[in-house]
Amino acid sequence: MRLRSKIVAFAALAVLAACGPNVHSSAVRGTGYVRVDEIVKHHPLYPQLSQIDDAIAAINLASVAPHVPMSASQIAAQTGELNRELRDAQLRANKILAQKQHDYAQRESQAVSAALAAAGIHGSGGLAGQQMSGASAQQLQQATQAANADLQAYQQNVIAQNNAASNSIERNLQTQADQKYRAKAEQLQQSETDLSLRLTQQDAAQRLAIKMRLSNLALDPTQRKQAQEQLAAINSRESAAVETQRNADAATLRALRAQLDRQTGDAIRNQVGAIAAQTRQKLEERRNEVGSQLRSLGPPPVPNNIPPNVQARIAQIHRQYVGAFQSDAAKTVADYNATKADLDRQFAALHGADVGATGAAAKELDALTKRRGELYGQIVAQIRNDASRIAKERGFTVVFADIWSAAGGYDLTNEVIKDVESQHE
Amino acid sequence: MKIRSAIFFAAAVALATWAGRGAIAADLTDVGFIDQSDLANLPVFVAANRQLATAKTQMDSQFNAQVKHVRTDAQRQQLTLQFQQQFNDKQREIVGPLFQRAQLAIAAVSSSRNLSIVVDKRIVIFGGQDITKDVEAVFAGPQAIQPPAATPPPSQIGFVDQNVLDGVPKVQTANATMQQFETTQRQVYSARIAQARTPAEKQQILTEFNKTISDKQDQLLKPLVDQTRSTTSDVARKKNLILVVDKADVIYGGTDITPDVQNALTK
């Protein structure tokens, strides 16, 4: 009997000891782990987190294209500056061309006078003047055509700039209004979330106590019904408080939208009106300027008869000076065109910029990232608390988060998910 | 006799239960953790970081002055590397000795408590031994810290270096392909989002973009991630490990199974 009892005892010892340290058995209750990322997805604040993630992703996606971080007033100011530079360049080019034209005309006049004097024709000064006037008639015709073409191109250019500036400002002001609205909406949404969370936490103990009572199978039907009603009353009270807050926030947002629409409309009208006035003034100035240039050239008098060889010589001198003038003027025109092309590029960059990446958007991105961090921190802190409480209740020794891989240990994730969900039902 | 054998049986059961608990407890009580942010707030670390930040500001302005004169991308890259090297040297000079002392302090405390692994506080939700204050006390002490005579005991917590696993050719190729795909899609969807007129349109485009990327990830990366995790689990089982964590979370000790996982993946 003694031997038998020893055998039985050792067999029991062996069986029980063998049950202990198998670290790969799911029955091992010492080490546990939770997949925090998975639990986060079941947290009641996860929809808010997703919204923020979406907003961040949208801004990031929109910011892939190159941008110029500017406000509407900055765009308007820079547009004005570019227009001023363009007008200065045109004035400079016109002044240089007028001076060159004058110089070449004078030199041509001297050459013609010399040619006439060499041919023995007297009163050469007056004749030469008349000949030069003949040349001026041709020049006047060319200048009028060129001036009209130039004025038309200028008009188109200025109007296109006006439209681009107006559109850009309108878009920018609307985006700014949207950003203000969105920021307020997010702020109110956050307050609602906070309120919801506060109420849930406030009632958590009471709710847990009722649930524990309900889980007692021995509870009689009257008591069970009473407990269920208490639970429903808590839920209803919380929902009513959140709903009241939500209605008040919706009214605030409606009022804000109306106010922003009014302000944006006024601002658009003011700024677009100012740009249109500038455009009208620029076109008027240019028209006057061209008119005055053309008037200064004067009407062409009729030339006197002169010998054919002298006429040929004068024509040759004219061709020579016109050619020299054109070649010289081409350089000035080329300089002007280069300046204009550069200004056009700057203008396109200024108005082609997407307002999504303005300074305001960058600020919004920062604010969203900060809010995301805070919200995620809040969610994870709560998950850690819940997981820690469960681990303690179940007698775990150590519980890890965010492990890479598990060959053993106990996965507490589903239990924590249930707990997180039950506290916020 | 029946009573005696029953008593003996009960005693054996109690002993076995105790021994079993002891066996489980033995592999569970040797985990320590440190709050690294607390350690980084020690005055010496704060002062060192401030010194390093000042040095970086100076280097940045020097870099900006010199980069204006470079003409090619190659020159720019060379200059960037040169400054990066300078910064690394400075970092080693200023923070290196402090890190070394902190490592020795952690090793000394771990050894005295017979810990097999010390991890970052962030990954411990419950249990474990918080050795932060002990390490800080040893670190702040006046005397030199001697390295422990023995290496840490074998740990049933393993770790893998994800950077090394990312270097496995097929993982590297998949990552590069995914990156290229994402860059291209970003350009495409960015242009579309710029054209969108309403928030609803933008949201629709964003949803499409997210789905495109997520589908590609499922097709390209998920099978590899699943394979890597399953291989890690197999290796861990063979080595009698319970859990495997990322190397970045391990401060001291633990069982490195990176080479085994790497080999299994390259087969």
Give a description of the structure.
The complex is a heterodimer of chains A (425) and B (267). Chain A has nine helices and four strands. In chain A, helix 4 runs antiparallel to helix 5, helix 4 packs antiparallel against helix 7 and helix 5 runs antiparallel to helix 6. In chain B, the strands form two sheets. A four-stranded mixed beta sheet of chain B has the order 4-1-2-7. Chain B has a three-stranded parallel beta sheet with strand order 6-5-8. The longest helix of chain B has 40 residues. The N and C termini of chain B lie far apart (63 Å). About 8% of the residues of chain B have low confidence.
What keyword list fits this structure?
heterodimer, A: 425 residues, mainly alpha, Protein Binding, DinI Protein, Chain A, 3-stranded parallel beta sheet, 9 helices, B: 267 residues, alpha/beta, 2 domains
SSE topology sketch:
The complex is a heterodimer of chains A (425) and B (267).
Chain A: H1 2-19, E1 31-34, H2 36-40, H3 46-62, H4 72-118, H5 124-214, H6 221-297, H7 308-352, H8 359-393, E2 398-401, E3 405-406, E4 410-411, H9 413-422
Parallel strand pairs in A: 1-2, 1-4
Chain B: H1 2-26, E1 31-34, H2 36-40, H3 43-67, H4 73-112, E2 117-120, E3 124-127, E4 129-130, H5 132-140, E5 157-160, H6 162-166, H7 169-195, H8 199-220, H9 222-238, E6 243-246, E7 250-253, E8 255-256, H10 258-266
Helix pairs in contact in B: 3-4, 4-5, 7-8, 9-10
Question: In short, what is this structure?
Answer:
The complex is a heterodimer of chains A (425) and B (267). With 425 residues, chain A is an all-alpha fold. Chain A has helices at residues 2-19, 36-40, 46-62, 72-118, 124-214, 221-297, 308-352, 359-393, 413-422; strands spanning 31-34, 398-401, 405-406, 410-411.
